[in-house]
Amino acid sequence: MSAFPEGFLWGGATAANQLEGGYQEGGRGLSIADALPGGKDRFKIVSQPDFDWTIDETKYTYPNHVGIDFYHRYKEDIALFAEMGFKCYRFSIAWSRVFPNGDETEPNEAGLKFYDNVIDECLAHDIQPVITISHYELPLDLAKKYGGWKNHYLIEFYERFARTVLTRYADKVKYWMTFNEINSAAHFPVMGQGMVPSTGANDKKNVFQAWHNQFVASAKAVKIARELRKDLHVGCMILYATSYSYDSNPKNQLANLQQNQDFNFFCGDVQVRGEYPAYTKRLLAKYGLTFDDLQITDGELALLKQYPVDYIGFSYYMSMAVETTDRDTSTVAGNLMGGVKNPFLKASDWGWQIDPTGLRIALNELYDRYQKPLFVVENGLGAVDKPDENFYVADDYRIDYLKAHIKAMAGAIADGVDLMGYTPWGCIDLVSASTGEMSKRYGFIYVDLDDQGQGTLDRYRKKSFYWYQDVIKNNGLEKKKPVKPKVDPLDIDLS
């Protein structure tokens, strides 16, 4: 029997801003992703004090404007997902395609019609949509005019957006998530909270206020969903990086405990448990803040308590190590954050440490803490793929990575973890969020497009496409045939 339960949600994951394109079609407004320059320096550029969201095509390229043209090719791509056997497809709804500026009172019908078509195409192939309501694509006007999520007005705008899409698709979409990697703002608030240094991103008071506003908005979305249908499932979504103390030094052990609390658990504690954890006092004090510095009402706290999320979605790409005693250690890169190099781990082409055992640890830590279903909604290997003359990619390195992580999930399920599904990131090549590159590829499907925007945009199946097709068919990794034991000659009865 498979280690994975019947009905396990195998699929893949993408985000609207990284693959849709059509950035000015169908009445769509600009999003913050449209203002992020392409290239490895995109985070350095938006971290400059004078960055003000201006789009300057004389200085930079903007690959998110085109993505991989899913806007026009969604039928072709969903058919490929169906060929792999997807049970679900996680994608996001671009807020600015539905409310172009973010603060309108009436939605853009053309934008909704596009998602009508995408959802219906999924359902026609027996693929369940898993929708992220807000995935790093805040309408640009809400960042420029209102300063991002630090502004309390965004709760009202998000509630209107969530009510619009939840109401329209309640009969077709069962699984939802409110915010993508909500805790990522701890290190980089530009994408999750729509704030840059010129609008207060470097002031931690703004980051915590923005989080609170998002917590309230998330609870309102849960409330709307429960009023619409009892069988809708609304989850949170966090970036999880399993964290280890570099050694047994008690100082590093304590620092690692606090790293887990502050990054891996804080946002989940509020959204799943429905209240701020006790260590919030210490976390705020680290930045010279108290609860009195934030605008929080009793009514909002009651709302958080009454409407926690139903499940925990999370991304897992890497683990990190914590060292605070000034030892001579080298550092590595990571998903929006770096850390101390773990000598026991290898790293990807982009320096992210590969640690499948860390996923099993993450699943156990999260399930032990919350006792609610878990959903691995992002996991994958960003790598440089080199296609042959027929655009075929023999990506055994990706297969090895995913196979090891699937084995880790099987182990966690054997441990007793309630795991709903698995949607590897970038199931089709798309624009990288961290670097704005096409050359950092994750997909089972190769897209002929380079970092300069050159290529046919044609799609080609990689070796991993067929491998993952087999994984889904078997509801897990391929089954090994039992080996017939050899007969010891001394055991043969010669009588």
From TrEMBL:
GO terms for molecular function: hydrolase activity, acting on glycosyl bonds. Keywords: Glycosidase, Hydrolase. It is an enzyme of class 3 (hydrolase). Coiled coil: none annotated. Its EC number is 3.2.1.-. It comes from the Bacteria. The active site is at E378 (nucleophile). The keyword Hydrolase applies. InterPro entries: GH, GH_1_N_CS, Glyco_hydro_1, Glyco_hydro_1_AS. SUPFAM superfamilies: (Trans)glycosidases. PROSITE patterns: GLYCOSYL_HYDROL_F1_1, GLYCOSYL_HYDROL_F1_2. Belongs to the glycosyl hydrolase 1 family. This is Glycoside hydrolase family 1 protein.
